[in-house]
Amino acid sequence: MLRGTEKIRSFFVCPLCGRRNGPFMHGASLFVRFHALSLWKNMPRKYLTRKNTLFYNKNSSAPFFVDYKAAEEMVDCAMRGGVNYYDTAWGYHNGGSEPALGTFLKNYPRKSYNLATKFPGYDLSNMGKVREIFEKQLEKCGVEYFDYYLMHNVCEMNIDAYLDESYGTYAYLDEQRRAGRIRHLGFSAHGDMPVLRRFLEKYGSGMEFCQLQINWLDWTFQHAKEKVDLLKSYNIPVWVMEPLRGGKLCSLSAEDEAKLKALRPQESVTGWGFRFVQSVPEVVVTLSGMSTLAQVQENLKTFETDAPLNADELAALSRIAREMTGKASLPCTACRYCTSHCPKKLDIPELIKLYNEHCFTGGGFIAPMVVGTLPAEKRPSACVGCGSCAKVCPQQIDIPAMMKDFAARLAKSE
Q1: Residue 185, class by beta-carbon neighbours within 10 Å (0-12 exposed, 13-18 middle, 19+ buried)?
Q2: 305 and 275 in one domain?
Q3: Whether residues 293 and 377 fall in one domain
Q4: 250 inside domain
Q5: pLDDT tens across 130-178, in order?
Q6: Last residue within a domain, chosen from 293, 316, 339
Q7: Which pTM was predicted?
């Protein structure tokens, strides 16, 4: 079990990701995602890496193109830098991720790296197929065991299925852990607090780590702090994904960048993102996106030092985060005056929260995923536009207009 291990400081280098995620850090021109390195505090210069390097070739008729030369250079750099953890998953690159990563890692002794993959519970058709999928994953990766294995993307859409013992998902994975074919079992989550609570009430005692989206903007915007506090109560170490929010936090306005430079003249905007997660005591591993060999080298250099932020620096980031989200968000305080006046009994504050997330992110999968779990009569499209809600809103939000816009945005994402 991982309980009580010392802190892993850093990030994961890994290649791979779906085309729809688009270009990531530092103005990358290819559709590629490297998911950074991770450094164990008690293992100097020992990094961990996440995913294999797959590129989307915009000039190819094939949906995905694997640039093996670039991938091998990045992995070689990572291995020489001490990287020893590689993460993949069943669905990455339409199923091509696991065999590609297995091919890369055959160049190295099995004990020189840790391999992580995941059960694809984000697709409900996979429920009940855990044995079949797990055995196939071992075959695709060319290994006899996984060092880390996750129940993938626990969220509103699949929480009932994950908790349904008739599928045997947790029971089978726990059996493989006891047999040594899974060395550490954990989960990743994009669900909100109620989902996380339900999952932990059922499986918390058996989870060794949890992977969450944590960064200085989502610390409050997506309730990351509350999620970390909940995991702490279960003594579960935290793995961080999206510390730079898909590259969004690598570039700020000139005014905001100047505020940060005044506090840390030598720190890049990207570096501030990493220093924030170094400031969260519960964080053991940090994953980040990288698109080029230069970014691998830059991030390795960043994580050679542990430089958490002080109180003034954290306060500066918090102010910038409030200003950023405030510009693109409706000022709902969840007073719920509106809900008692809605003839359709819509959960208006929750829908506004999802609308804010969808607008700020510029799309994404979270809002469509959550709204997709709601009955048709509880979705934004069910709003009749009567305006009863807006009349009692203390913030004077035009709720009917928001519902109409949200429904249109969701329709475009289908």
Answers
A1: buried
A2: yes
A3: no
A4: yes
A5: 999 999 999 999 999 999 999 999 999 899 999 999 999 999 999 999 9
A6: 316
A7: 0.76
